[in-house]
TrEMBL record, chain A:
InterPro entries in the cross-refs: Glutathione-S-Trfase_C-like, Glutathione-S-Trfase_C_sf, Glutathione_S-Trfase, Glutathione_S-Trfase_N, GST_C, GST_C_Tau, Omega/Tau-like, Thioredoxin-like_sf
EC class (word): transferase
Protein name as catalogued: glutathione transferase
Organism name: Gossypium klotzschianum
GO molecular function (one): glutathione transferase activity
Keyword Transferase: yes
A Pfam family the protein falls into: GST_C
UniProtKB/TrEMBL annotation, chain B:
Catalytic reactions of this protein: RX + glutathione = an S-substituted glutathione + a halide anion + H(+)
UniProt protein name: glutathione transferase
Entry's localization field: Cytoplasm, Cytosol
Species lineage: Eukaryota, Viridiplantae, Streptophyta, Embryophyta, Tracheophyta
GO cellular component: cytosol
PANTHER family in the cross-refs: GLUTATHIONE S-TRANSFERASE U19, GLUTATHIONE S-TRANSFERASE, GST, SUPERFAMILY, GST DOMAIN CONTAINING
Length: 219, 220
């Protein structure tokens, strides 16, 4: 019986966060795919409050909420540390992780149109500006020379954002306006573990394109 | 240890600010409390929290920490010798963080809907609010505090909302104690501690503040 199990769903970026960190730390795990239209007993048992993925099950104990899972993994398996050692630097990292949690949600953008979309565009641009100017600044990665949990938290900007831009035909991250973020996306996607563990672009595009058509036709 | 310079930019009715007051009091840390006028934010606030321009802001030796859950964890890590708030076991820490996150996601917004809406929207908010409190009662179980025998992270994150319960009850015309007696018993137990009772404003004052907000926003 595997000691570490991960309940997840392709192509959820929250599930991928946990995959990246487990692999960055070299932790073996069993992946259990959840059908979110038909939630299984394992999910309902291990995340009764939110009934959402990802859920990490470690020696039978369940941990929910992706960033909480990542702090847990970081504490249990401290090798290849993904958080600063200094408490103040750690507080700054957690501030940006919360910012990413609250503000970065490209998949939600795929469902907007009309006035809702206009507002979402303004909010997205504001988020990207703040991220470029204040969070990333001139660093290679949010974590400095190598990626850390802040990069993982912003991971959705790497592939999911572009996919949503292509599905909605709205350009949000213009490389000329956000050169540092564009460089970060290129660097992030080249990190070996990340490169090997990204959802297939075409498959994801087709899936969300169909989802958007369905959403808009039901409105 | 050299004198620590600790400043808290805050606003008296803010449950988020109260969390930090309680944490600092539990750790017996002396600090300077600065009341902000949110309609006329100080240069210091705008400089120390340029991203959100919100309180509370904890300034430690001149360096700002923002976001109340981040601040409480920071306080716990910087001053670990007294009143530890998060458990030492990583799994228990994950559980505490989960419930802290749950409170953050649900309680403030539902409470706001209770005092600022009417009719079906208010009824739906009341119902969900009580459901959330019942889930929290389940997590509390038979323990004196969420932290066990002493105040812990979840206690610090949740108890500030107790100062707002009277306002919610008056505006929503319901009794939280009737629905969730265990949670009210827990809150009263927390209020027996100086660190909590001195950090929470009087519930009548909060109710007056809510009435004032309703007037300002033109809510009946």
């Amino acid at each position: 019986m595997a000691e570490v199990k991960l309940l997840g769903t392709w192509p959820s970026p929250f599930y991928y966060r946990v995959v990246w960190v487990l692999k960055l730390k070299g932790i073996a795990y069993e992946f259990i795919e959840e059908d979110l239209n038909n939630k299984g007993p394992l999910l309902l048992q291990h995340n009764p409050v939110h009934k959402k993925i990802p859920v990490l099950i470690h020696s039978g104990k369940s941990i929910c909420e992706s960033m909480i899972i990542l702090e847990y993994i970081q504490e249990i398996w401290p090798q290849n540390s993904l958080l600063p050692a200094d408490p103040y630097d750690r507080a700054i990292a957690r501030f940006w992780i919360k910012f990413a949690e609250d503000k970065v949600n490209p998949l939600a953008f795929a469902g907007f149109y009309g006035e809702e979309q206009k507002k979402a565009i303004r909010d997205s641009l504001e988020m990207l500006e703040t991220t470029e100017e204040h969070a990333l600044r001139d660093k290679t990665f949010f974590g400095g020379d190598k990626i850390d949990l802040v990069d993982i938290a912003f991971g959705q900007l790497s592939q999911w954002l572009q996919m949503v831009e292509d599905v909605t035909n709205v350009k949000l991250l213009d490389a000329s306006k956000f050169p540092r973020l564009q460089r970060w996306i290129n660097n992030f996607k080249q990190v070996p573990i990340i490169k090997e563990n990204l959802p297939d672009y075409q498959e994801m595009f087709a899936y969300f394109k169909a989802l958007r058509v369905m959403l808009l036709s039901s409105k | 240890m050299a004198d620590e310079d600790v400043v808290l930019l805050d606003f008296w009715p803010s449950p988020f600010g109260m969390r930090v007051r309680i944490a600092l009091a539990e750790k017996e840390i002396k600090y300077e409390y600065k009341e902000e006028d949110l309609r006329n934010k100080s240069d210091l606030l705008l400089k120390m929290n340029p991203i959100h321009k919100k309180i509370p802001v904890l300034i430690h030796n001149g360096k700002p920490v923002c976001e109340s859950l981040v601040q409480v964890q920071y306080i716990d890590e910087i001053w670990p010798h007294k009143s530890p708030l998060l458990p030492t076991d990583p799994y228990q820490r994950a559980i505490a963080r989960f419930w802290g996150d749950f409170v953050d996601k649900k309680i403030y917004d539902l409470g706001r809907k209770i005092w600022s809406t009417k009719g079906e929207e208010q009824e739906a908010a009341k119902k969900e609010f009580i459901e959330c409190l019942k889930l929290l009662e389940g997590e509390l179980g038979n323990k004196a505090y969420f932290g066990g025998e002493n105040l812990g992270y979840v206690d610090v994150v949740l108890v500030p909302f107790y100062s707002w319960f009277y306002a919610y009850e008056k505006c929503g015309n319901f009794s939280i104690e009737t629905e969730c007696p265990k949670l009210i018993a827990w809150a009263k137990r927390c209020m027996e501690k100086d660190s909590v009772s001195k950090s929470l404003p009087d519930q009548d004052k909060i109710y007056d503040y809510v009435l004032h907000l309703k007037k300002v926003f033109g809510i009946e």
